[in-house]
Amino acid sequence: MARAKEAKNIPGRFGAYGGRYVPETLMAALEELEAAYAKAKKDKKFQRELAELLANFAGRPTPLFFAERLTKKLGGAKVYLKREDLLHTGAHKINNALGQALLARRMGKKRIIAETGAGQHGVATATVCALFGLECVVYMGAEDMRRQELNVFRMRLLGAEVRGVESGSRTLKDAINEAMRDWVTNVRSTYYLLGSALGAHPYPTMVRDFHRVIGREARAQILKAEGKLPNAVIACVGGGSNAIGIFHEFIRDKKVKLIGVEAGGRSLALGEHAARFSGGSPGVLQGTYSYLLQNESGQVATTHSISAGLDYPSIGPEHAALHDSGRAEYVNASDKETLEALALLSRTEGIIPALESAHAVAEAIKRAPKMKKREIIIINISGRGDKDMGILQENIRA
Amino acid sequence: MIFFRSQPGLVAYVTCGDPDLATSRAVILSAIDAGADVIELGVPFSDPVADGPVIQRASERALKNGTRLEDVLTLAEGVRNSRPLTNLIIFSYLNPLIRYGLPKFVKRAKEVGVDGVLAVDLIVEEAGEYRLLMEKSHLAPIFLAAPTSTDARLKKVAAASKGFIYAVARTGVTGAKTDVRGDAQQLVKRIKKSSKLPVAVGFGIANAEDFQAVGKYADAAVIGTAIVKIIEEQSAKAASPEAVAAAVGKFIRCVKKTT
Ligand SMILES: Cc1ncc(COP(=O)(O)O)c(C=O)c1O
């Protein structure tokens, strides 16, 4: 919207992207959140509390594991796995949930709402709410409730209320719409714990900051293991939180390729995928200006992915800027390639990744054989596959 | 120039293309003849986060039959030609406007005789280019003021708005019940401190009683969901466009008469 040049240094802008596109009713809450976060960020006590929870509750640091058999099988670059799947609750989402819940508590908010796609952010939010004794309501598309049924039960077991959303394509986008409607109604009492690097400022920046620990650890770990930086870092991109979290620490290392993998779905026809950089164009959805899958009259397109966590028509605005500047490259993996990658990683390394993360594995499988043996790839394994057993049973003959 | 002929003024919202454009046209003309001062022509959107279930369903129906921004502008042109004096506002989420192209949209809106534009998810701070374009074309940019807006924000809203200021009666989406003597009255009082523009109160104004109560402290009231609901009920009975329009006209007369 705003022209790129003048927008460059506005907080919440990434090049031309980002910003705040919300009804006025939410503005005071966003300003309050921005101020509270700025204060917490500088507060040593907040940072110490968060670091301690990340270590003792979530299980950080996560290992960087050399996938030796996969490397041999692919016959090219050395493949390392950043094991976010080993975190408590099974995905990177807990990094952000802990950070924001601590912030909500400081702000004196007692009611937390969240949206969830794959259910991992919902589970992480339900978990931190149980830990802090906060009321928790999670919005989830009815289609996602079906395909991620186990996570629905986990959230309820943790004491959260899960509200099914029947509108639109009944997936992540519709869950966010409903969460925003709740927030706009209960804005005075409620904290919206958004689960990806999406939405209106300050969310994309704040969520990224809470996930930067992934890249910070990975960079130190690879330097320790190999004495050099990787040639490529690969991560799947739904809203973009795990990817921006691992990318950020490497952005200034210009020689490190940053590769985001979107959901290629069944095909690249509109409606059949969620690859925003293949067929999307800049637009505004749910508070932010970014690439968006939409039709010629600006209506948001439906999307498809075998993984609920990547099944979303827009993408975090910082990725839009990294895409346009060429600093990161965005590719996609189809449902089929993803299932094959998931099976391969399971059998060669004994690690069953989440379907989301398997998209990143699929890209590494394409890329590693074409690289030199002394070159290095890090794949961010953003989560584990336990939640996906139902879909996998439907799709893979084990 | 936007002005309210009656006191309090009545702003009527209609989701265009629900259930079809012919009905929208008939309803709008009937609303004008029943005494609506301003018509808000709602552009349907796939993800209406500020709207409750009634307007969500209306948007879905309008999109299902392919209603586009261009169609809404053409509808506005037809209404303008038949009723030269009525104030017409385009009420939209931002994305359809951006996709159409803001400069092209503003130019076309002016051509067809639109008076102002309200983009629900566009706050003053993000509206630089938009305001410049609107100013050049002499279109009124209308912004929302909310009960949660700080006084500092209300000042910004007042400075950026033309025509009138749209005061959101309560926190929440369109359609839910409003206590018109609570948040809304406070908000109007605060707005009046920093602006001489007329203030219209909207969100949840459903009947003559609400309308009358709002009229005691504001310049106008917006009626949206209540009208859209009549359209929904009438079209469910397969009523003709004229019959739907007559029902809406009757409702508006009834709302206005009691004041
Ligand atoms: C394991 C896992 N990875 C990735 C994602 C996608 O989100 P993001 O792009 O924000 O990392 C999800 C979202 O549900 C997830 O559960």
Number of helices of chain A: 15
**Which structural class best describes the helix and strand composition of chain B?**
alpha/beta
Give the topology string of chain A: H per helix, E per strand.
HEEHHEHEHEHEHHEHEHEHEEEHEHHEH
Mean residue pLDDT of chain B: 96
The overall pLDDT average of chain A reads: 96
| Spatial gap, N to C terminus of chain A | 49 Å
SS strand fraction of chain A: 15-25%
Find the structural class of chain A using helix and strand composition. alpha/beta
> The CATH topology of chain B, please?
TIM Barrel
Quaternary structure: heterodimer
What are its keywords?
heterodimer, A: 398 residues, alpha/beta, 6-stranded mixed sheet, 4-stranded antiparallel sheet, 15 helices, 14 strands, 44% helix, disordered N terminus, B: 259 residues, TIM Barrel, 9-stranded parallel sheet, 11 helices, binds pyridoxal-5'-phosphate
Write a brief structural summary:
The complex is a heterodimer of chains A (398) and B (259). Chain A contains 15 helices and 14 strands. Chain A is of the alpha/beta class and 398 residues long.
